[in-house]
Amino acid sequence: MVTVELNEWRTIQWNQKAMVTSVKEFEIANNQVRELRFLLYGPVGVGKSSTVNTIRSIFEGRPFVGCLAETAAGKSFTKTYEKYGIANGREGMLPLAFNDIMGVEKGESEGVRTDDIINTLKGHITEGYVFHTEFPITEKDPKYRRNPSLSDRIHCLVSVVGADKIKMMDQEFINKMRKVREAASGMGIPQVVFMTKVDLACPMTNGNLKNIYRSRKIKEIMNTCSNLLGVPMNCIFPVKNYHDETHMNEEINCLMLDALTQIIHWAHDYVVTFSTIPIHKE
Ligand SMILES: Nc1nc2c(ncn2[C@@H]2O[C@H](COP(=O)(O)OP(=O)(O)OP(=O)(O)O)[C@@H](O)[C@H]2O)c(=O)[nH]1
Ligand SMILES: [Mg+2]
Questions:
Q1: Residue-wise pLDDT tens for the chain (282 aa)?
Q2: For residues 39 and 90, what is the distance between their CA atoms, to the nearest angstrom?
Q3: 241 touches ligand 1 (CB under 6 Å)
Q4: 19, 29, 67, 172: least surrounded by Cβ within 10 Å?
Q5: What is the DSSP string of 61-93?
Q6: What are the backbone dihedrals phi and psi of residue 253, each rounded to the nearest 5 degrees, phi first?
């Protein structure tokens, strides 16, 4: 008999109220930065758009499908650089923005280019830019921002991977993701990994999401992910997105809110640090 259940090794608050309130009351301690910017980056079809939809759903109180999620796997569906805000119920918008970009694909000539991602982190690419696989953005492009300010930069890089496919991740993918992470590190940008599709990777978690931090399988997958991408375990968040549910589910919300609360803190720390240290011009 293989033991599949561990003692709970990370605790989650399975009641969403306090977490929702604290995100709703969050304010940025710098009036030049109106919103914290997160970049969702990862392989095609891994659930980047669905992650934005899940976060929007939590604050809208209903499953949200505004950010197109594709059903057929294959080439990346999201090709335009888009920014998604999060509505705070009927009370305006939260100071959070998510940029969802074309998935990274195998091979240099496919998917979003590494140099374009690095330009995105630096704030050089404006919304509406359509990514090309053959060539990067140039300074002449009308969507190129020459002198990005702190508020134009990405404040936290969220690499998104699928829990169901970690072991099948191609070496080329991994190299691309590592390169982007190194560039982000060089800029002091905090980085985390959202590991989606936990329901597909572990039957015990699929049966009851509250088992997530008791599942040996999930911990093993997180360890593999940590080794492959070089990210510490405490920066890896397994999550489940809304995909076939028609009603809200507090457990899905709590798991995502736990991760969201952490990345808000880290992105905010970045903004506070760089509010006093000027950004180097290249
Ligand atoms: N079971 C399950 N399915 C998910 C989850 N997250 C996303 N999906 C499904 O995975 C598919 C791809 O999701 P998307 O959100 O479009 O992925 P993406 O990363 O934005 O893809 P590209 O924009 O094409 O790179 C969709 O059919 C989603 O419904 C999850 O946590 N669990
Ligand atoms: Mg997408």
A1: 455 788 888 999 999 999 999 999 999 999 889 999 999 998 888 999 899 999 999 998 888 766 555 544 445 555 788 899 999 877 789 999 999 876 666 655 667 888 999 999 999 999 999 888 888 999 999 999 999 999 999 999 999 999 999 888 888 888 888 889 999 999 999 999 999 999 999 999 999 999 999 999 999 999 999 999 999 999 999 999 998 888 899 999 999 999 999 999 999 999 999 987 666 555
A2: 25
A3: yes
A4: 29
A5: TS----S---SS-SS-S--B-EEEEEE-TTS-E
A6: -60, -45
**In the chain, what is the straight-line distance between the N-terminal and C-terminal CA atoms, in Å?**
58
Q: Is 145 in the pocket of ligand 1 (CB under 6 A)?
A: no
Helix (H, G, I), strand (E, B) or coil at 11: coil
Q: Is 199 in the pocket of ligand 1 (CB under 6 A)?
A: yes
- Give the CA angle between residues 235, 245, 164 to the nearest 5°: 45
Q: How far is the CA of 47 from the centre of ligand 1 (A)?
A: 3
CATH code of domain 39-275: 3.40.50.300
Taking CA atoms only, the protein residue closest to ligand 1 atom 23 is 78
> Pairing state of beta strands 36-41 and 93-100?
parallel
Query: Starting at the edge strand that comes first in sequence, how are the strands of the sheet with 156-162 ordered?
Result: 82-87, 93-100, 36-41, 156-162, 191-196, 236-238
Q: What is the DSSP string of 210-278?
A: GGGGGBHHHHHHHHHHHHHHT--GGGEEE----SS-SS--HHHHHHHHHHHHHHHHHHHHHHHHHHHSP
**Which protein residue's CA is at the shortest distance from atom 2 of ligand 1?**
197
Read off the tokens for 166: 């970690």
Name which of 149, 226, 137, 170 is nearest 46 in CA terms. 170
Where are the domains positioned within the chain?
Answer: 39-275
